[in-house]
Design a protein that fits this description.
Blueprint (H helix, E strand, L loop, with lengths): L2 H7 L2 H21 L19 E7 L10 H11 L1 E7 L3 H10 L4 E3 L19 H11 L4 E6 L8 H14 L2 E5 L2 H8 L6 E4 L7 H10 L3 E4 L4 H4 L9 H9 L4 E2 L7 H5 L1 H13 L3 H16 L12
Parallel strand pairs: 1-2, 2-3, 4-5, 5-6, 6-7, 7-8
Helix pairs in contact: 2-12, 3-12
Length: 309
């Protein structure tokens, strides 16, 4: 048994269980939903027909031996993921995956490499030059995912420089930060285009206020599946549902494959995102599943991409 098969087989039973469970409960979830009638009925089990744009994928070097490029595309195909926004530490992982499947991978430039990581990157002299060099060499649509925990006199210059690069090139910043740090980034330029990783793990009321205030802010829902589905209740939280309907044009879904465990659970994670979408009206579900990504990244996303590279 190869290492990748051995690793993935430990979670195979769980993925099969949740696949079956979702297919059984999705119609019931849709029938039980009495909200959103002004936007049409919930899409229900027809959600399984939608192509998915995964807005938060990492292909880190630790994944390469266990999940080679062919395996990653197979996981995407099995899950109905037509296209993915990919960033990696190092960036070479993103490029490996993009070169293998340029029709399926949308690359963004994560600056972490050679011991430079989440907490240190904004303090490293000369890192902006590295970012520019990678952006010049490859067709990255953004810079990120980058983590911003706070600003101080030592890293403010780097953060402003990264904002300037994004503005100059009209590309996105994919930022993992709370709402206060997102607001601080907008102080560098009101026209910044920001994809807010995980919605900052902020509560939906704060996410709503931020989306109301900043028209170029979008959010992706990776790592929020448990919470949005009622913390294990298996039904979409009504506060989250109202937010997703109100700002249907500002959200995307994602899996955040930061670890091999996340890759092993990939099919399950996509199903969890489909469970969220299943309780939304079709136009809202389609927007969050893939149509927002079509608009943001200028791609055509259909199920016809499944099985292609």
């Amino acid at each position: 048994m190869t290492p990748d098969v051995a690793f993935r087989s430990t979670n195979a039973w769980r993925r099969r269980f949740y696949t079956l469970a979702f297919c059984l409960v999705a119609p019931a979830m849709a029938l039980a939903d009495g909200s959103g009638h002004d936007h049409g009925p919930p899409i229900g089990d027809a959600v399984m027909e939608l192509p998915i744009f995964d807005a938060h994928v990492h292909y880190k070097d630790e994944a390469w031996p266990f999940f080679p490029e062919k395996t990653v595309l197979e996981l995407m195909d099995k899950s109905g993921v037509a296209m993915a926004l990919v960033s990696s530490a190092p960036d070479a992982g993103t490029i490996k995956l993009w070169q293998y499947a340029p029709g399926r991978i949308v690359p963004e430039m994560q600056p972490y490499h050679s011991g430079i990581g989440q907490t240190s990157w904004s303090y490293v002299p000369g890192l902006a030059d590295y970012i520019v060099e990678r952006l010049d060499r490859y067709p990255h649509v953004g810079i990120g995912e980058i983590h911003i925990y706070f600003q101080d006199a030592k890293n403010r210059g780097m953060l402003e420089r990264v904002a300037d690069i994004a503005l100059e090139r009209d590309i996105y910043l994919h930022i993992h930060a709370n709402h206060e740090e997102i607001r601080a980034m907008y102080a560098f330029g009101a026209d910044l285009k920001i994809i807010w990783a995980h919605g900052g793990f902020d509560p939906p009321q704060i996410i709503e206020a931020m989306l109301d205030e900043f028209p170029t802010l979008h959010a992706e829902l990776s790592y929020r599946e448990h919470e949005t589905l009622g913390n294990g209740a298996g039904k979409l939280n009504p506060v989250w549902k109202a937010l997703l309907i109100k700002h249907a044009d500002r959200f995307m879904v994602g899996t955040d494959t930061w670890s091999n465990e996340q890759w092993a659970d990939y099919e399950f994670l996509v199903l969890r995102n489909r469970a969220i979408l299943s309780e939304l009206p079709r136009p809202v579900a389609e927007a969050i599943a893939y149509k927002n990504a079509e608009r943001l990244f200028g791609r055509k996303i259909t199920r016809d991409l499944i099985g292609t590279r």
